[in-house]
Structure formats: C-alpha cells, structure tokens
C-alpha cells in the first residue's frame, strides 16, 4: 500500500531553519545519522539478550558509502529497522509542541545545537546537505514488510512498499548542489575520524589495500600480493571503557599516542570511572606544558556514549584543567549541547566539581607516595597547580599541602616547609617574613649573589602566571611578603632596622649625589646615597616593587592595571657611600675624572639590569679599556 502525507510539524518553516542555522556545523549530519544507526544496532543487541529477537544477529557492521556519479551518500545498518507505522511515528512526527513559538524563540540565533537536542531533529540534519532523503528499512519483527520513505526537503513525504532482504535501515542522501564537497572520500573519512572513531559498533567506509609477503620466487626472494580488507574506521572498545585494573602503563601511553601522535609522552594520567550520582568515564593526561600553556588548550575531547561532541569543554572541565589532555565521556550530556546547557545543567556542574577533586586527590597521592618523583615533575605540573590555586578556593585548600616552591639552588619545599626554613633569618623589623624571588636568574644573578652573601634564600618564580601567583600568595599567607630580589638593595628588601655607620659626612654625601646627577643626567633616575655594606655594589639600580609589579601585571593581562603599563618607567639609583670606589671618586682632583668614574659605576649598574644597550654600551666598553690602560 502506497501512502502520501504531510510531516506533522505544523509549520513549513522547519526545513529552512534547519538549513540556515545548522549551516556552520553542517558536517554533523553524518554524526547524527551514524549515531542513529548505532542506537538501532544496540537496541537489537538488547532485544536479543532479552530473547525478543528471534533472528540471527549476523554481522552488525554499519556501512558508509558514496556514489559520486549518482551524488548519493548511504548509511546502512543491520539494527532493529522500522515498519511503515514506525516510520510515521518516529520520522513524520517531529516531537515538539508549539512550532510557532519554537520558530520565534530561535530565529536569528546561531546555536542550533541546542535546538536539535531538545526537539529530536537529529535525523533531519540530513537536509542540511541533501535535496532528497530516502529511507529503505525492514523491521526485525517476524513477518514485517520492508518500507520506503521519501522526502524532498519540503513537508511532503511518501511511504511505499519496497524490496529489502535483510533486517535494518539504509539512509540514502541525494546530495544538494551546494553540498557536493561531501562527495569526496577524504572529506567523508575526515568526518568519520573526527566524530566516530570510538563508536561501539564497527563502522566500515570502503576498503584498504595492503601489500603482504606471499612466498618466495625461484631465486628465493620474497613475493608480494595486494590484499583488500574492509576499512574499519573506529575502535569499538577504547581505553576509557575498560577497567583500570586490566590496563598497564603502556596501554595508557599507546592510547595517548593515538590521540596526540605528535606530542611528548605525558607525565601521568587519571582514569575516571563514576556511576553515581552521574555517569562519567574518561582518561585525563598531564602533558609537559612548560610556559607555553596558551597553545595547549582545547585538547580534551568530550564524548557522549563514545560519540564525539566537541573539544571545547570549558564548562565541563574547570578552567585551570583545560591544559590537560584526554577524553571525557558521559551519557548524561546529550550529543547536541549548547553553551547555555553546559552552564546550567546540574550534572555538568557535578562533573566539573568531581574532576577537580579527582585531580587534587591524584596530585596529593603522588606527592605523598613518591616525593622525589613528584619533585622531578614539578617544573611541568607546577603551572597546573598554581593555576588551580588561583582559580578555585576548593582546589587551593587541597593543593596548599602539595604545592611546591623551588629555590635557585634547585631545592623544593612545601609552603609550610619554606616558611619554617626562612623565617628565622628573613623576618624584617615589622615581623613580616620576606620571601625573595627571581624571575630570571641569569639577568638577576648579581642581586641573587648579594642575597646569598647574607645567607638569604631566593625562590625561582619564572612561569607565565607567577606574577599573579605572587600577589595571590601575599593575600593567602599570613604576615608574608614576596619581593623580587632586584627590587631594592638587599638591606631594604629585608629591613631589620640595622643602620650601618656611614664613612661619609652629610656634606660628602651631598657632593657624591651632585657628581652622579651631573654624570648620569637621566630624568628617570631618583638618586640617593645610602650607608650599605662595603661588599655591596657601589651603585644599584632598582624599580620600586609596587610599580614594577603593577607594570608586570599590565603586561600579562591584569586588566585593571592597563593604565600602569603606559606610565614611564621610574628607577631608583642607590649609591653605596661605604664602597671604596665612592671614596676614590671624592678624592679625584679633576671633575672630569670624577664624572668618568661615576658614569662607569652607573653603567655597571645598568649592565647588571640588562639596561645598557646601543651607543651607551659601546662607550662603556671604550671607557673600560681606557680605565684599564691607566692602571
């Protein structure tokens, strides 16, 4: 019996909406149709287990094929199939109410993924690329007659009897002129590799040819033949679906190579396996990040029942863990998700919190079980931990026990251990414990050496987020300040109110200041003469800690500090009145000699801060040669 009718959607606007709104994501039509085929196949398996399917299951491979001449793409499965009545129920009546409100609500919006998920339009995504769609299907039910459904992209359809020997469904897409790009083998394979590489039912797309050895010729040399085999594009049992107890380290590493063939091996991994109060499986890998973490994002793949959804998982995974690699799979997240869905869904929020907890627990376990190994990985994982502490208070509460400081001596300390180490010697007159740090040991070596002469310790804080981390720690750690080792003279950085006696009179100090003002002639320098240790440098150039920190924040994206980044640099030039060179300058008979020596001391201070360049550097070198010749 042949039948014609109208699809029950109560509006003729549905297909233009599908085509218009889905266009930016139009390749997902293949994912949707194959997902339907997988569902049909898995339903058949369940019916067989329940004893309701009397037919032999046979080969359940799903086949994807195309015909460039006929301009068709076909998806064939051997699942439960449909009767004519089931076609009317599941295909012709799109399951939503209030079509007019639907059209108005989503008109002009880009995020149609949410629409598909809410209104069951997955099958109709076929019309993004097809001018006509045919369904040829035969139900598993005993005695069922095959049926054919045809629709040309309007609301008109036709159902008719047809011939089909085997159980299952063939979806035939007649590709529209504006979508012929999909009639290409490598375009289709690319989509299959992206969305279907881990589906639980075998997916075949064409065949592959391989040369294999086939005996020896008369001379004993190997002969070869070409063997054709089905091209199965997916792994039906990916690693995250298996129990951790049956897996070895090499299994995890091999899977990582499959996901990221060009990456270094990961440091370690976390296998997620939760079935209450939500379902979640997956494997998260800690990669070697170093300081270029921005380019590492969007490496976690989100799946739903082994179907790829997206690699933009910001709302599923905490922001600071976006640096991780791996896979998350949850059937509680629908295939077609919108940003608003991810932000509001309670299960997504629970998953987010659970992942944070699992990562914190794993890091804590690694630290406690093998501290030496943990310390060896800190240079790579430190950025995760610091980023997490900055981002989430709950993570900070756990991480403060396994977050490490690294000193310039390559020694590691927990936050509590470090305070205990430096507090006796690095507490200032106001009872503030001062943590000295360097952002560049090579450039700041002179200042580090001066600190170590006092037996002070210096931390290495050179990652891209350490400037923010420094500010954060000062808010969290009681009676603690962090100061960059080149932010001032060492006795001012840790001010113990111990004034050294000056070898210069006040009048001599004024003369020294005048000499340096005339020699330097730099409006950015505020010059002062201080009584420091004779072993300290004769001249030190520093930038005020507060001003420098604000400028650093502006450079690294601290939005509220943008204005500070545009302000001219201001430096403090500290002349050590107790250094022998300053006495020599005062004793010089000629004003020219005084200025020459003062300029030389100034240039040495500039050089120690990597601020001496161009013509000034050339003149410094020439002056150094002249002074050496006078000796």
UniProtKB/TrEMBL annotation:
What Pfam families does this protein's entry cite? HATPase_c_3, HSP90
GO MF, any single term: ATP hydrolysis activity
Keyword Nucleotide-binding assigned: yes
| Region annotation A: where it falls in the sequence | 1-339
SUPFAM superfamilies per record: ATPase domain of HSP90 chaperone/DNA topoisomerase II/histidine kinase, HSP90 C-terminal domain, Ribosomal protein S5 domain 2-like
Quote the cellular component terms of the Gene Ontology held in the record. Answer: cytoplasm
Residues of the Histidine kinase/HSP90-like ATPase domain: 25-165
Report the SMART domains cross-referenced here.
HATPase_c
Q: What UniProt keywords apply to this chain's record, in alphabetical order? A: ATP-binding, Chaperone, Cytoplasm, Nucleotide-binding, Stress response
InterPro entries named in the record: HATPase_C_sf (IPR036890), HATPase_dom (IPR003594), Heat_shock_protein_90_CS (IPR019805), HSP90_C (IPR037196), Hsp90_fam (IPR001404), Hsp90_N (IPR020575), Ribosomal_Su5_D2-typ_SF (IPR020568)
Q: Which residues bind ATP?
A: 32, 36, 77, 82, 97-98, 169, 339
Q: What is its main location?
A: cytoplasm
Q: Which family does it belong to?
A: Belongs to the heat shock protein 90 family.
Instruction: Say what the protein does.
Output: Molecular chaperone. Has ATPase activity.
For this protein, the record's HAMAP family field holds: HSP90
Q: How does it assemble?
A: Homodimer.
What is this protein identified as?
Chaperone protein HtpG
| Organism of derivation | Fulvivirga sedimenti
Cite the source lineage: Bacteria, Pseudomonadati, Bacteroidota, Cytophagia, Cytophagales
Gene designation per UniProt: htpG
């Amino acid at each position: 019996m042949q039948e014609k009718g109208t699809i029950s959607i109560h509006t003729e606007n549905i297909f233009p909406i599908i085509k218009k709104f889905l266009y930016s994501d139009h390749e997902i039509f293949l994912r949707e149709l194959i997902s339907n085929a997988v569902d049909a196949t898995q339903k058949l398996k369940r019916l067989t287990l329940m004893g309701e399917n009397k037919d032999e299951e046979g080969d359940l491979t799903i086949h994807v094929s195309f015909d460039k001449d006929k301009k068709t793409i076909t998806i064939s499965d051997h699942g439960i199939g449909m009767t004519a009545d089931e076609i009317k129920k599941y295909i012709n009546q799109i399951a939503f109410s209030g079509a007019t409100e639907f059209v108005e609500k989503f008109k002009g919006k880009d995020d149609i993924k949410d629409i598909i998920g809410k209104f069951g339009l997955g099958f109709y995504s076929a019309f993004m690329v097809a001018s006509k769609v045919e369904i040829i299907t035969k139900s598993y039910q005993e005695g069922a007659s095959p049926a054919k459904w045809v629709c040309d992209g309007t609301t008109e359809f036709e159902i008719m009897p047809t011939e089909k020997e085997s159980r299952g469904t063939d979806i035939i897409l007649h590709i529209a002129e504006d979508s012929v790009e999909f009639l290409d083998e490598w375009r289709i394979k690319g989509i299959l590799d992206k969305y279907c590489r881990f589906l639980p039912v075998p997916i075949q797309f064409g065949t592959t040819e391989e040369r294999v050895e086939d005996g020896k010729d008369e001379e004993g040399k190997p002969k070869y033949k070409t063997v054709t085999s089905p091209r199965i594009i997916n792994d039906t049992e990916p690693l995250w679906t298996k129990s951790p107890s049956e897996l070895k380290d090499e299994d995890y590493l091999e899977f990582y190579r499959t996901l990221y063939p060009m990456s270094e091996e990961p440091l370690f991994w976390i296998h997620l396996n939760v079935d209450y109060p939500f379902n979640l499986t997956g494997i998260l890998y800690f990669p070697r990040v170093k300081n270029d973490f921005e380019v590492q994002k969007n490496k976690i793949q989100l799946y739903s029942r082994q179907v790829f959804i997206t690699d933009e998982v910001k709302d599923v995974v905490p922001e600071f863990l976006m640096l991780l690699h791996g896979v998350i799979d949850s059937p509680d997240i629908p295939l077609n998700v919108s940003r608003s869905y991810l932000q509001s869904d309670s299960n997504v929020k629970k998953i987010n919190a659970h992942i944070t907890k699992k990562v914190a627990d794993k890091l804590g376990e690694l630290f406690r079980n093998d501290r030496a190994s943990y310390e060896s990985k800190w240079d790579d994982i430190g950025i995760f931990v610091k980023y997490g502490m900055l981002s989430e208070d709950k993570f900070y509460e756990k991480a403060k026990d396994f977050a490490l400081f690294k000193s310039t001596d390559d020694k590691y300390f927990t936050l509590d251990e470090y305070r205990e180490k430096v507090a006796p010697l690095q507490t200032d007159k106001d009872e503030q414990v001062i943590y000295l740090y360097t952002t560049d040991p090579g450039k700041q070596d002179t200042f580090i050496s001066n600190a170590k002469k006092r037996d002070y310790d210096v931390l290495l804080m050179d990652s891209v987020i350490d400037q923010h981390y420094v500010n954060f720690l000062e808010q969290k750690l009681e009676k603690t300040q962090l100061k960059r080792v080149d932010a001032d003279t060492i006795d001012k950085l840790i001010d113990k109110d111990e004034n050294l006696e000056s070898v210069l009179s006040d009048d001599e100090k004024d003369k020294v200041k005048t000499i340096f003002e005339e020699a330097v002639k730099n409006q950015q320098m505020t010059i002062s003469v201080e009584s420091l240790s004779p072993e300290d440098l004769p001249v030190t150039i520093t930038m005020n800690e507060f001003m420098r920190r604000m400028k650093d924040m502006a450079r690294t994206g601290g939005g509220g500090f943008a204005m500070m980044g545009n302000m001219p640099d201001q430096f403090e030039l500290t002349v050590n009145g107790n250094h022998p060179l300053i006495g020599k300058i005062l004793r010089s008979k000629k004003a020219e000699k005084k200025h020459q020596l003062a300029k030389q001391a100034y240039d040495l201070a500039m050089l120690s801060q990597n601020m001496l360049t161009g013509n000034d550097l050339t003149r410094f070198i020439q002056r150094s040669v002249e002074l050496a010749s006078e000796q």
